[in-house]
Specification:
alpha+beta, SH3 type barrels, Arc Repressor Mutant, subunit A, 3 domains, two-stranded antiparallel sheet, 42% helix, 7 strands, 5-stranded antiparallel beta sheet
Length: 219
């Protein structure tokens, strides 16, 4: 079971308001008690009104809940953009609400990213910096679909010839996994640090050692 699915299952268990023992929830979900403890900490940090303690049990106060949503990358991008705009330009109560909602989204984003860093945090990157990277996403997506080689001009003046392989969203910024022909290896580049993109002539094909599965299998 994915972590996001498990967190949602725990919310469904707790929302009846009754006291639930960690041992019982661990048995029902097929995980360790320690995992349930960590999940309870995650839910509490995300703003879910969880009450209780280890060795006693947990319950949740009444709160507004939504059914699970399956978001496309474009929908998630639009949500991030709106939250960033509110969080960096609204009055104090709306800013706090945007930060809280952002933390809840971070807590349930998929965790099966190889080498994923921790959440960057809502206020770490200003809205203008995050928005700067959005303008490149369409070009990057198209290049991934079409196997198009790109020359990425990065902030600071460096340039890389790359084969874009995969886009990832980390809660605050987008990154692109590429095989870099310039350096001869895989690298993860932040979209907001790309200054300009040139589309290079010619397409690339999958080559052993330069594919996503090779990156996943690498130590």
């Amino acid at each position: 079971m994915k972590r996001s699915d498990r967190l949602y299952a725990l919310i469904q268990i707790l929302k009846d308001g009754a006291l639930h023992r960690a041992e019982d929830m661990a048995r029902d979900l097929g995980v360790s008690v320690r995992t349930i403890y960590r999940d309870m900490d995650t839910l509490a940090a995300s703003g879910i009104p969880v009450e209780g303690e280890r060795g006693v049990g947990y319950s949740a106060r009444a709160a507004i809940t939504l059914p699970p949503l399956n978001l496309t990358e474009d929908e998630l991008e639009a949500l991030h953009l709106g939250l960033a705009a509110v969080g960096h330009g609204a009055e104090a109560d709306l800013k706090a609400a945007a930060e809280s909602l952002s933390a809840k989204i971070d807590a349930v984003l998929p965790e099966d990213r190889h080498g994923a860093p921790k959440s960057f945090g809502f206020a770490v990157y200003p809205f203008a910096d995050a928005a700067f990277g959005f303008r490149h996403l369409g070009t990057l997506r198209g290049a991934i679909r079409n196997r198009q080689k790109l020359r990425l001009h990065m902030q600071g003046g460096s340039a890389r010839d790359v084969r874009p392989l995969k886009l990832d969203y980390w809660g605050r910024v987008w990154t692109c996994l590429v095989w870099c022909d310039t350096s001869g290896g895989f690298t993860m580049l932040r979209a907001d640090q790309i200054d300009r993109i040139d589309i290079l002539p010619g397409l690339f094909v999958d080559e052993p050692g330069k594919r996503i599965e090779d990156y996943v299998a690498s130590p």
